[in-house]
Amino acid sequence: xxxxxxxxxxxxxxxxxxxxxxxxxxxxxxxxxxxxxxxxxxxxxxxxxxxxxxxxxxxxxxxxxxxxxxxxxxxxxxxxxxxxxxxxxxxxxxxxxxxxxxxxxxxxxxxxxxxxxxxxxxxxxxxxxxxxxxxxxxxxxxxxxxxxxxxxxxxxxxxxxxxxxxxxxxxxxxxxxxxxxxxxxxxxxxxxxxxxxxxxxxxxxxxxxxxxxxxxxxxxxxxxxxxxxxxxxxxxxxxxxxxxxxxxxxxxxxxxxxxxxxxxxxxxxxxxxxxxxxxxxx
Length: 282
Hints:
Number of helices: 9
CATH topology: Aminopeptidase
Helix content: 25-40%
Radius of gyration: 20 Å
Distance between the termini: 31 Å
CATH architecture: 3-Layer(aba) Sandwich
């Protein structure tokens, strides 16, 4: 049963209640697209002149692609302005767990008009899988100088909050009570805190990181200018800390951080309470 005010159980066009991604994925393509398309912020449709009903642009081309195989509890969706575009404007990857939780694997909302930084490629031009298979240091330096966070190829559209409101209501409409995720970077973890997430694993690490970046702390002392990603003063911002951690400033790798949110509830966590530049987080 839905918990959020004004929300209701999701049903199919013929009135059958839907309780899972598997249920939605069993529907005809048009109906699946209508349901999943409802997770895209309306402002994105307006910005790029895409019909929220047909998902077609002014050129008549369909902009929405949904991969939601019948029999499986997963969904991948993307919006591309042109079929041959290198990057999607909107990308979402979600999976339901065996415990009736919704796993928010990826949500990327990108401004296609912004300059691109090839931080997702290694020196040979191959996908580096979020810098786990080599880094493109020259592009990372350019990206950081432009105000981006680690792994960002382009500036975002600052729509995650609008998306997450829709997503939480969608999860609630399926009768699910928990959303889980795995932040890939320090800044992602702090960002999720703003939306009410708590930690399954990693809270002690996040609190320890805040201590290590205090004046005189061991990580603050390592911000010695030895690389472009370790400059004095970076301890004061989420972006600065995240780039230093991405650069390997800690003795341990950034790993095993898992978070969760109970639908309709906020954990109220803030593991970096004295940060500057709050507006840097969308």
